[in-house]
Recover the amino acids of this structure.
């Protein structure tokens, strides 16, 4: 049972435009959410996170939005750059101190120059 | 440089031959985890450790063992590897004061 879902396996966006990556979850006990970025032949790297007590968190070109009632979060990248081409994973955590991090299946983002 | 290292990076082995993948972090992190990444399934947690001598199962622990005798090291042991354990494995660590995990570069394992 996939508790964290990324329904779009791939996404192509023109350079300079906004990229929007989506993530849905089913477990209402999740209270912290993270986005990771992964390049080929490398480990995932942390990008941005959000606590369930917030509905938005911004860091430079990256903004994460959380809609708890819909159990949905999204990552916005503005403006998109060629270096943003990577696989993006959404992850969720419940109960700080419990190390069970649940990942989505990933979305491959391609930025078209 | 703060990092998580894994060895080996690539390994081809045969069914039943015990192997160990090492993981080490130099950030004095309390928490360490192992994940496997498979096509269409994302990253799934195998085992995690909240501190020395404290380990617990993740979502897919069958066929794996771990130990945490020192804070910096968290080896993954496959006592009798099988072809369904062919995968890309990642070790990760984080401090007790933050949520973000730092990942190693990955170990690609093929079991024939």
């Amino acid at each position: 049972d996939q508790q964290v879902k990324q329904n779009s396996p791939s996404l192509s966006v023109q350079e300079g435009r906004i990229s929007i990556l989506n993530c849905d979850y089913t477990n209402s006990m999740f209270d912290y959410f993270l986005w990771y970025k992964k390049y080929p032949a490398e480990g995932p790297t942390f990008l941005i996170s959000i606590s369930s007590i917030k509905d938005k968190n911004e860091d430079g070109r990256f903004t994460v939005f959380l809609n708890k009632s819909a159990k949905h979060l999204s990552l916005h990248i503005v403006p998109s750059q060629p270096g943003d081409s990577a696989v993006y994973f959404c992850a969720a955590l419940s109960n700080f101190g419990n190390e069970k991090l649940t990942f989505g299946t990933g979305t491959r983002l391609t930025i078209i120059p | 440089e703060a990092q998580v290292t894994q060895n080996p990076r690539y390994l081809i082995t045969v069914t039943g031959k015990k192997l160990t993948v090492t993981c080490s972090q130099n950030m004095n992190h309390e928490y360490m985890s192992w994940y496997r990444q498979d096509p269409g399934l994302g990253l799934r947690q195998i085992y995690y450790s909240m501190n020395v001598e404290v380990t617990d199962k993740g979502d897919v622990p069958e066929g794996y063992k771990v130990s945490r005798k020192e804070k910096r090291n968290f080896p993954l042991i496959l006592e009798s590897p099988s072809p369904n354990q062919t995968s890309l494995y990642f070790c990760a660590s984080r401090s007790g004061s933050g949520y973000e995990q730092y990942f190693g570069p990955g170990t690609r394992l093929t079991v024939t």
In short: Chain B is about 0% helix and 50% strand. The CA atoms of residues 33 and 48 of chain B lie 4 Å apart. Chain B touches chain A at residues 4, 31, 33, 35, 40-45, 48-50, 56, 58-59, 90, 92, 99-106 (CB under 8 Å).
